[in-house]
Amino acid sequence: PAPVQVKPAAAVASTSLTALSKKEKRSFKLVEKEELSPDVCRFRFALQSPEHELGLPTGKHMFIYAEVDGETVMRAYTPTSNNNQRGYFDLVIKVYFANVHPRFPDGGKMSQHFHSMKIGDAIQAKGPVGHIEYVGRSAFKLGKAELQLDEVGFICGGTGITPAYQIMQTALRDDEDKTVFSLILANNTAEDILLRDELDEWALKYPTRVKVWYTLSEAPEGWKYSTGYVSEDMCRDHLPAASACSNVFMCGPPPMIKFACVPNLEKMGYAADQLHTF
User: Fold this and answer.
1) Tens digits of per-residue pLDDT, 97-123?
2) CA 12 from chain center: how many Å?
């Protein structure tokens, strides 16, 4: 029999009712709000109808807009729900409260705005945005280029986990997708790790396909993973070796990517065109 073709996310978006627009901001109402920890919440926003799909290809992000203290604030977000989900999308957001971090006394404008939202309040969104798309079954589109990758490495910092999470979630839903994923996730504290339960569950359920490694700035007693910045040894031990069939994708603070990720990956033999930033 002929091999079953995965319908690319872009094709899904074009043949169904699509919620997002690249050309204009569209409004989405908050319908559910769940506190996952004291400073992490899951926000569910309704699409225009129960039949609508968001229209965000896997791996891409969208711009969210909100009015905060009289000014328009814009941030990029990747939902944790998948693009085939109809009727709503989910955002898992870490709230940066004022007067918690000495370096950021005002906290995060957008994340605090999300935290203050009530059911029925709306945000505006526009997209898709970004040059990385996971088509499925190891196939990526990077701008106009197409890649087939057997092994994919991710290095993510903090909330930068969301695009990697969405790609892995899409791949793991397809029994025919054999891509192997290796993730290094860096955070300040263990409490800061977003989506840890889901990531640990995948690593247990798919031991040959998902490998997860954490590193913390401040590790608790008995911590079995790494402490400190992403290092060359950490990358060698927990990411795929450089090859024609492996690439590494990064999402996190620019200094982490520039000073900790790229130099160490280059020491492993990765070329510049094998390293990608969401």
Assistant:
1) 987 777 778 889 999 999 999 999 999
2) 20
Q: Which of 58, 78, 170, 215 is catalytic?
A: 78
Question: What global pTM score does this model have?
Answer: 0.89
* Residue 65 annotated among the catalytic residues of the structure: no
- Judged by DSSP in three states, 232 sits in helix
CA angle 103, 108, 114 (to 5 degrees): 160
- Catalytic residue, chosen from 52, 61, 115, 238, is 61
The model's pLDDT over 220-268, given as tens digits with 9 standing for 90+, comes to 999 999 999 999 999 999 999 999 999 999 999 999 999 999 999 999 9
Contact 128, 60 (CB under 8 A): yes
Number of H-type helices and E-type strands within the chain:
7, 15
Catalytic residue list contains 276: no
Tell me the C-alpha distance between 72 and 123, whole Å: 11
Told to judge if 261 belongs to the known catalytic residues of this protein, a careful annotator would answer no
| C-alpha span between 68 and 108 (Å, rounded) | 11
Query: Nearest-CA neighbor of 166 among 242, 249, 90, 82?
Result: 82
Of 18, 41, 58, 77, the catalytic one is 77
- 251 assigned to active site: yes
Tokens for 98?
């004022």
